[in-house]
Amino acid sequence: MTAAPPGPAFSVHDIPFSTHGSWFDISPVVAEKTYADDLHLVSHQNGMHAVLRLVPLDPGTGDRVETRVEATPALLRWSGPGGRIDLTYQSPDTVRLRGSGLGVGVLAAAPALTPFSGSYFFHDPVADAHVFTSYETGRRYRVTVLRGTTARTAGSQALGGAERGLAVTGEADGTWEIAIEEFETARPPYPPTAAFDDVRDSTLRAFTGFVDAVAPWRSSATPAAELAAYVLWSATVRPTGLVTRPAVLMSKHWMDKVWSWDHCFNALALARGCPELALDQYHLPFDHQDAGGALPDSVTHSEVLYNFVKPPIHGWAHGRLRRRLPTQPGRAELANTYERLERWTGFWLTARRAPGSRLAHYEHGNDSGWDNATTFDPERVVVTADLAAFLVLQMRELAALADELERPEEAARWTGAAAEMQKELLDQLWTGDRFLARGAATGDTWTSAGLLDLMPVVLGEHLPAEVAGALADRIEAHLTPYGLATELPTSPHYRADGYWRGPIWAPATVLVEDGLRRAGHHRLADDISARFRALCETHGFAENFDALTGTGLRDRAYTWTAGSYLLLAEAHAHTVTDPGAAP
């Protein structure tokens, strides 16, 4: 029998080791831009919290030893002088560890226990196991020794400052094995279960099934497809707390939320292979839609934030989603989506249109998703062309849904509203060769060297040819060898690590590529896709990238980047095999 391939290797400094459904990972990344010397069990319940430190030990002296860490989707390994430690996920809340020739220390990450922080550590006589109970996560972490010797414990029942944890070493043959579980209050003692290798193989089969579903088209021409799939698979959490559905977090590093436009790109990437999970991604923020129709800024385990919103790309996304789903949603589901999109659109047309204005405005750059883009330098409460374009597409999608639901009057109303807004966009903000931004209160207008000003290209086939052509020319000026810089590199405001003031971002790439392609500018769309795919294949799936060097920036395991790669790679693969295929 041929062994299953282990899957792509990756660095845990870039991508955390986790499994589908789990709320914790194993990683040296313990806070924003903070890397520890040892791997930690890091939870994302009630925020991001390093709970346990996992330390490879010399079995003779008990001292920490230096090791080399290797990771593949189902197995994490420490290799050191004279031995190794392996870790695999048995389930979303349980990991198994085994060692040979090396011991392991499982220690509380927090140095002190206070009435409101840290981890209390004790031996549980019922389960004959050691337990850490964490104030930060509100969960317990139980360590059961399955084979080997508890060489020492420290800090059992201690208060205040103390080292807390246990060290495990091998039996006579030098081997040991433990299980670490995360749970709420109580559960039966850890039971005898499958062998470690069987647990690992089961996890690998689950991952392989996911890859085969979302990227059956992968080949040597799309070399990053399996790793992109792992980033999505491992960042998925089961419904818990305020997360109402299975959710793909943006990362299991510090960007451990679902923001209300990021989710659209992951939904599209998952649609063909995992349609139910894709629909869950699309609808999750809508589960928290407020009374005025607004979507939250973000959703995570224990908080939903409404202080900002995100751009209304949801009509654009839903239209693409429906084309990608293997089976179309039923009438009841379409009606539910229509009602949600209608309320979201109504929010922009009422709460975000000043008296006498036919165009909506953002209240801050954060509302646009392009937080600090130079478009928002003169003023923050701004009427922008991208917002009008997204609303035009959203109203067109509402018209299409109303038509399918046999509501002709509503379809006609949305079709008319979309046409009226597009006319206002062109009449008010188009100068003949570029789009303006306008202060919502002052009426002052300006332009920038930012890519955001060019985003009305998302209107694609709905744009007049001369407008699409002018936008395409300006977009091409933003191309570097690695992709689309969000600020022209020649701009005095360009910053290499300036967030939306220069770096390359996945969502802008996908939106621009799609709009150009629908407007007939296939050569430029192909070029943008090729450069972004090559960027990910060389530099991974970072939150964003230095536009002039390609270096990954900020959070290095970002799911909308991985999802965007899968979208573009799939379209490329289908075009190669069938030049007439639609992307």
Short description, anyone?
Helices cover 32% and strands 22% of the residues.
DSSP summary: helix tally: 13
Biggest sheet statistics: 8 strands, antiparallel
Distance between the termini: 38 Å
Oligomer: single chain
Shape annotation: elongated
How much helicity do the residues have? 25-40%
- Decide which structural class fits the backbone: alpha+beta
Give the overall pLDDT as a whole number. 96
- Whole-angstrom Rg: 26 Å
Q: Tell me the β content.
A: 15-25%
Number of strands: 28
Low-confidence region ranges: none
Widest sheet, order of strands: 4-5-6-7-16-12-11-10
List the helices and strands and how they pair.
Blueprint: E1 24-31, E2 34-43, E3 49-57, E4 68-72, E5 75-80, E6 83-91, E7 94-100, E8 103-108, E9 112-113, E10 119-124, E11 129-134, E12 140-147, E13 149-154, E14 160-161, E15 165-169, E16 175-183, H1 196-214, H2 225-234, E17 236-237, E18 247-248, E19 258-259, H3 262-270, H4 275-283, E20 298-300, E21 303-305, H5 314-324, H6 331-350, H7 365-368, E22 382-383, H8 385-404, H9 408-429, E23 437-439, E24 445-446, H10 465-477, E25 479-480, E26 483-484, H11 506-518, H12 522-539, E27 544-545, E28 552-553, H13 559-577
Antiparallel strand pairs: 1-2, 2-3, 3-8, 4-5, 5-6, 6-7, 7-16, 8-15, 9-14, 10-11, 11-12, 12-16, 13-15, 17-18, 19-20, 20-21, 22-23, 23-24, 25-26, 27-28
